[in-house]
Amino acid sequence: MATRAVQEGQPSAAPTILGERVRTARRELGMSQAQLAGQELTKGFISQLESGLVRPSIRSLQVLANRLGKPLDYFLGDEPLAAGKRVAFHRLAAEAAAEREEWSEVRGQVGLALEQSPEPRERARLLRFLAQADVADKDPETAFERISAALGVIETANEPAEAAQLLYTRGAAYSLMGQLVAATEAFEACRDIIERFEIVEPRLRAKLMVALGTMYRRLNRTTKALSAYESALAIASRSSEIAMAARGYMGIAVSMYDSGELDGAISNYRRALELFRKVSDTEFELSVLQSLAAVHFEQGEIDTARVAAERAMKRAIEVGSSHWAAVAEIVLARVAIAEQRVDDALRLAKHAEEILAGSGDELQRADALRVMGAAYETSGQAANADKSYRTSLETYTAIGDHADRSAAAAEYAKVLRARGEIDAAFDMLELARGSSGRR
User: Fold this and answer.
1) What is the rounded average pLDDT of the residues 147-164?
2) Are the CB atoms for 387 and 369 separated by under 8 Å?
């Protein structure tokens, strides 16, 4: 009897079944099933739970855990395994939110995952998601800190794909700051890892080639830009139902998570994530089409540029993207000026500027204003040309795009010099040189 009393007075060895763990914890506190149920649950539910006849939702189990003074993972089987599954779930949720550019959701899911003390590889991935959110929130300094911390906990030889992703994010942060050379170096380092370790991730390669193409173009390395864009153009398009299907998988994943079915939740989130990736491929496709059109124009290939821009316009209309249609209009406006169709150029550029102002894309809006300036000048409307050029320059300055501001200032200087406004032209050349120096 004495031996039995001592045994009952001590915490029992942790059972392996959920119901047994609830029963053991309840008895250790001397609680009845009715007391444990309280007002939120029922005595019958507790009885069925302890008998293994029902499986509680995560929310119900959290109520019981709080009432019994136990951590939630105590009731989920093997604690390290449960924690690992929860990290995986929240990491996948964060990744899916990043695909949708829902950055507050990214931060929330990463926070929940970090609470589980993830192993280094998972921690690196979670820090990368936070860095991506920082870049989206225009906070590159914090992004750099997170990227450095993530690179510090992994070995490139062991985790080359993750190291490549982190270097890509570092390039995006440098690009945000207008440090084009540093951004290009980071993107090229990412490419080197992909090639050296033969990483087979077509989407990462496509993203990288788009980024490199943009950097090369802004650094006036046109041939390399064209090659990079052409490499990226292999991205497949999507069907119109993918986004809805992805959200359906997300709903299933969340429901399964709430019911404690972590494996099923993770599986469905993975399906959703793959579909979201396909959705965002359309953005890459449109970006590359527009960029190819712009590069062809810069090379003086007017007919080819028109065909590419019209293709981009058609694709943008097919997928319902007024933003990318407006971006295509900018190239078509440039083509119209080259072909002496000034009225068409003004119409296209004005419409593009209006759409882009509404979408908040200040970079492309500045490009549209620059084209408007050229069209106004060609039609002899000097005052309107001045206004458009100067507004374009102010916009480039406001967003810190010194490279494009330099090009626009140099273009405007030629216009002023042709008018005979030598002093004003000199000022623009000085602005162009200053912008180039900071680049």
Assistant:
1) 95
2) no
Exposed, middle or buried: residue 338 (CB in 10 Å: 0-12, 13-18, 19+)?
Answer: middle
- Max intra-chain CA distance, the chain: 110
Q: Does the pLDDT value for residue 9 go beyond 60?
A: no
Question: Which pair of structure tokens corresponds to residue 70?
Answer: 């136990």
Single out the residue of 397, 340, 349 nearest to residue 372, CA to CA.
349
Contact status, residue 197 vs residue 163, Cβ threshold 8 Å: no
Which residue in 385, 243, 374, 233 sits closest to 296, CA to CA? 233
283 vs 110: CA distance, rounded Å = 25
Lowest-pLDDT range, 64-68, 219-223, 342-346, 391-395?
A: 219-223
> What span, in angstroms and rounded, lies between the C-alpha atoms of 157 and 163?
9
Write the DSSP symbol of residue 11: P
Q: Tell me which DSSP letter residue 158 carries.
A: T
| Angle at alpha carbon of residue 231, lines to 359 and 192, rounded to 5° | 100
| pLDDT at site 10 | 38
Low-confidence winner among 109-118, 286-295, 397-406 (lowest mean pLDDT):
286-295
Whole-structure pTM over 0.70, yes or no? no
Closest by CA to 117, choosing from 70, 84, 162, 74, is 84
What single letter denotes the amino acid at residue 256?
M
| Mean pLDDT confidence for 20-28 | 89
**Section 42-71 average pLDDT:** 81
Sign of CA dihedral 293, 294, 297, 299: negative
> Where residue 13 falls among pLDDT bands split at 50, 70, 90?
very low
Q: For Cα atoms 166, 168, 169, give the angle at the middle one, nearest 5 degrees.
A: 65
Name the nearest CA neighbour of 187 among 170, 201, 200: 170
Confidence (pLDDT) at 4 = 32
Residues 6+ apart with CB under 8 A from 80: none
C-alpha to C-alpha distance for 84 and 64, rounded to whole angstroms: 22
Question: Any idea which residue has 């058609």 for tokens?
Answer: 314
When pLDDT is averaged across residues 18-36 and rounded to a whole number, the result is: 89
Q: For the residues of 261-319, what is the DSSP string, one character each?
A: -HHHHHHHHHHHHHHHHHHHHHHHHHHHHHHHHHHHHHTT-HHHHHHHHHHHHHHHHHT
Give helix 342-359 / helix 322-338 axis angle, nearest 10°.
150
Measured CA distances, 233 to 308, 315, 344 (Å): 12, 13, 29
Q: Cα–Cα distances in Å, from 292 out to 90, 264, 296, 312, 363?
A: 38, 43, 6, 9, 17
- What is the rounded CA–CA span in Å between residue 431 and residue 410? 8
